[in-house]
TrEMBL record:
GO terms for biological process: fatty acid beta-oxidation using acyl-CoA oxidase. Its cofactor is FAD. Residues 186-294 form the Acyl-CoA oxidase/dehydrogenase middle domain. FAD binds at residues 190, 229. One of its GO terms (molecular function) is acyl-CoA oxidase activity. This is Acyl-coenzyme A oxidase. Belongs to the acyl-CoA oxidase family. Residues 333-483 form the Acyl-CoA oxidase C-alpha1 domain. It is found in: Peroxisome. GO terms for cellular component: peroxisome. The keyword Phosphoprotein does not apply. The active site is at 469 (proton acceptor).
Length: 576
């Protein structure tokens, strides 16, 4: 009996070693046909100018994007894999625990620091420097959104708060050290009891003129700072948004710097920190909760570009209206929203590249018995599921580039428009990304469930974009409010509409033709009037429409017909 058993095992092993071919079930499943398949990334070539297409879609800083990608693929920290043809691919290791993801994200940031990636991110303010920063965030976000979000907390929230709310003394003390990661910052605004309603936060800061210090307190459980990126482990300093009470008068929310950990990473006295725990995505970011118990900070730690407190405790502010002061305090969120919107579109591009590529290699069902099976993308239903999303992603990609340009060229006169456009686009582009990823996941069938195909993980990681830095529904209400206010103001003064994308409403609405032909639908005049049906939607979509028209004008004559889409060097490419 045992001899038989040993013989059987030996036969099985011998078969493995000799790789005896499986017996085909029938002719249509011949072994050769299977082995003919080569993954497209191994031998792909493009029948169009890749660089021109990238110039159009990425819009700016192509060399800088390639430079960062080159840095990424040189390091094992990015889980590099070599495939046939000498090509190197990178993607996060999706089997890591939350603790491992947090640590590897920080290590990747330190590796970037060694390679000079963050040079000038806070200390250079030219439009070129800001555009380069946007481009590098986008590359990081395509690799792993935790990496991009972690950098966003440190540079866009902590760093920009100091830059925009602080004055010379703060800039000199903190900006270079932040760029060099000698301080690691977080941004503590949200509380357990108040998220969207920032005005309602309950953390209270008072002033003690005897010691010239501010004293920060968490007066109740709902006032604990919650969802604070980097607070659970890595941050040693925090921007604390708090009510300021001077002589028992509440002066509204103000912005302070507090040290929360010492140089060895120990939590400072009078502070309690807890972990928010495992999330549905973005687990490379250590999100935490903070309580303050009579924490004393120097008077100089009030970021005082908008308001100040004198050594003897007198409150002074050039902005008398508390509502306007509140608006000024939320200014740094604008660059974060622009970055979120543009990263969302890169995520949609990755999802679509995966799903469309799959639909160009996967076959399902034959039309005639024993005939070849049909490619998924040859099914009209599959085309209708993916191609409108692809077209919309192109349009939104141009819109994201437009808002970046508006932001880097900002002036005091354009600030209001940028604020409103960035809120609208942040909401539209992040919603679009989530919708696109879900369709892409389903379009890949079972393969869409595999983490190595990325789409499912992108859904988990990017979902939070619809909530943080302004919940999308709340943002769209604010966009509508701004548009209605502008509308009412122009009507009251009997002036034509100017700005905020409302100019098209100065001419009469066209009469809808009974027959809507494709040329009518494509006419930009018709489109811009139709869009006024929904004021808030109209505004954001008009920005997109204009961006598409601008982009089309840059193209050579003839229309684009997309027939192949792929990702190369971390970039999204479409063959036209
Ligand atoms: C992973 C993650 C990281 C974060 N990082 C940070 C950080 O680093 N620093 C920081 O300060 N915060 C951070 N946040 C907090 C984030 O900014 C808030 O979650 C966000 O502002 C929404 O607040 P909320 O969660 O309290 O939702 P709520 O304000 O309670 O909203 C819940 C729902 O109610 C709806 N709603 C709210 N008000 C209205 C209204 N007036 N009318 C109609 N509907 C309404 C909203 O649309 C939403 O759907 C983070 C959050 C997450 C999840």
């Amino acid at each position: 009996m045992s001899e038989n058993c040993a013989l059987r095992r030996a036969n099985v092993l011998a078969n493995h070693i000799l790789q005896s071919p499986p017996q085909p079930w029938n002719n249509s499943l011949a072994r050769e046909a299977c082995l003919q398949y080569t993954p497209p990334e191994v031998n792909e070539s493009y029948g169009f100018q890749v660089k021109e297409m990238r110039k159009l879609l990425d819009g700016h800083n192509l060399e800088d994007r390639d430079w960062l990608y080159g840095i990424i693929i040189q390091s094992n920290l990015f889980n590099r894999k070599e495939r046939g043809g000498g090509k190197v691919f990178v993607s996060p290791d999706y089997n890591e625990t939350m603790e491992q993801q947090r640590e590897i994200s920080m290590k990747r940031i330190m590796y970037f620091l060694e390679n000079g990636v963050f040079k000038g991110w806070l200390t250079e303010t030219s439009p070129e420097a800001e555009l380069k920063k946007f481009a590098l965030y986008e590359v990081c976000g395509m690799y792993d959104y935790s990496l991009s979000a972690k950098l966003g907390v440190h540079f866009l929230l902590w760093g920009n708060a100091i830059k925009f709310f602080g004055t010379k003394r703060h800039h000199e003390k903190w900006l270079k050290d932040t760029e060099d990661y000698l301080v690691k910052g977080c941004f503590a605004m949200t509380e357990l009891g108040h998220g969207s309603n920032v005005k309602g936060i309950e953390t209270v800061t008072s002033y003690d003129p005897r010691t010239e210090e501010f004293v920060i307190n968490t007066p109740c459980e709902s006032a604990q700072k919650y969802w604070i990126g980097e607070a659970a482990i890595h941050a040693n300093h925090a921007i604390v948004i708090s009510q300021l009470e001077i002589n028992e008068t509440n002066q509204g929310i103000h912005v302070f710097i507090a040290q929360i950990r010492d140089q060895d990473g120990n939590i400072c006295p009078n502070i309690h920190i807890a972990d928010c725990g495992h999330k549905i995505g973005l687990n490379g970011v250590d999100t935490g909760r903070i309580w303050f118990d009579n924490l004393r900070i120097p008077r100089e730690n009030l970021l005082n570009s908008v308001a100040d407190v004198s050594p003897d405790g007198e409150y002074v502010s050039a902005i008398k209206n508390p509502d306007q002061r509140f608006g000024a305090f939320l200014a740094p969120l604008t660059s974060g929203r622009v970055t979120i919107a543009s990263c969302a579109i890169y995520s949609a591009k990755v999802g679509l590249a995966v799903a469309i590529r799959y639909s160009l290699s996967r076959r399902a069902f034959s039309i005639v018995a024993n005939g070849p099976e049909v490619l998924l993308l040859d099914y009209p239903s599959h085309q209708r599921r993916l191609l409108p999303l692809l077209a919309k992603t192109y349009a939104m990609s141009f819109a994201a580039n437009d808002i970046k340009m508006m932001y880097v060229k900002r002036t005091p006169e354009t600030n209001k428009e940028i604020h409103v456009v960035s809120m609208g686009l942040k909401a539209l582009l992040t919603w679009h990304n989530m919708r696109t990823l879900q369709e892409c996941r389903e379009a890949c069938g079972g393969q869409g469930l595999k983490t190595e195909n990325r789409v499912g993980h992108l859904k988990g990681d990017y979902d939070v974009q619809t909530t943080f830095e302004g919940d999308n529904n709340v943002l769209m209400q604010q966009v509508s409010k701004a548009l209605f206010a502008e509308y009412a103001s122009c009507k009251k003064r009997n002036k034509p509409f100017k700005g905020l994308g409302l100019e098209h409403m100065n001419s009469p609405r066209p009469v809808l033709p009974t027959q809507l032909t494709s040329s009518t639908l494509r006419c930009s005049h018709f489109q811009s009037h139709q869009l006024s049906e929904d004021l808030s939607k109209a505004f954001a979509e008009k920005a997109i429409l204009q961006a598409v028209l601008d982009a089309e004008a840059k193209l050579p004559a003839g229309s684009i017909k997309v027939n192949k889409v792929t990702v190369s060097h971390g970039q999204f490419l479409a063959q036209s």
